[in-house]
Amino acid sequence: ANSNYQWIDISQLGVLYTFPDNDNAGEWVDLGFPFSFYGTIYDQFFVNPNGWIGFETNNEAWENSSIPSTTISGPAIFALWDDLNPINDSCNEYCGGEVYTHSNNQRTVIWFNNVAHWWTGFENVTYNFQVVIYSNGEVKINYNELNGGYNASVGIQGNSILGILYSFNNENLSDNFTLKFNTGPNWLSLNNTSGTVLEGNSTNIGFTATALTLVGGEYDAYI
User: Fold this and answer.
1) Among 24, 28, 16, which residue's Cα sits nearest to residue 90?
2) CA distances from 148 to 53, 69, 90 (A)
3) From CA 166, how far away is CA 179, in angstroms rounded?
4) Using CA atoms, how far apart are residues 102 and 86, in angstroms rounded to an integer?
5) DSSP, residue by residue, 85-135
6) 29, 43, 116, 122: which sits with the fewest CB atoms below 10 Å from its CB?
7) pLDDT at residue 1 above 60?
8) Residue-wise over 166-184: b if at least 16 C-beta within 10 A, else e?
9) pLDDT tens track for 32-57
10) Model's pTM, two decimal places?
């Protein structure tokens, strides 16, 4: 177990998130605050039924890969990217578990409530976990109960060449366990976070610092 594990109970607050099928995201959801992720500010997200959260482009890929992923190109939080089968509008007889979201001005919770794995080879396997996105740029993934095996990818990425891999098809997760990620301060953003500069050449990278959400004081950050 992780001593920093702190499950956020939204069972009385959460709004049901609906999926058209078991591989495609549903509607966009407001975060409730500006969220800085790999140097870009987002205020909305979508939930993919296969265990990840996206900020730009959905992808129906059910077979997970390493992270950063060339299959899923956009910014994403991969909490348990695997072939999952939550309750959806095109359910087969084996779908199970629903997803709920709840936002306030400090954090957004996306809760996968005992969601089923695709049945083949994973009979009666369910996962109870949540992604928590904080207004300060921090991301936590809380794993409450993983009931059965998994071949999941876990990590975050800004794009297909920039990311952090925690686990790929490894049994590195456990019940009552929290992962924490942070890609930088929410008061600093860059106009470009990747690219190539040829030998002898140069390029300009602009950055924006905003104090709108800060209290008075001194702030330091690496770029």
Assistant:
1) 24
2) 22, 25, 24
3) 9
4) 18
5) --S-TT--TT---EEEEEE-SSEEEEEEEEEEBPSTT-TT-EEEEEEEEET
6) 43
7) no
8) bbbeeeebeeebbbeebbb
9) 999 989 889 999 999 999 999 999 99
10) 0.84
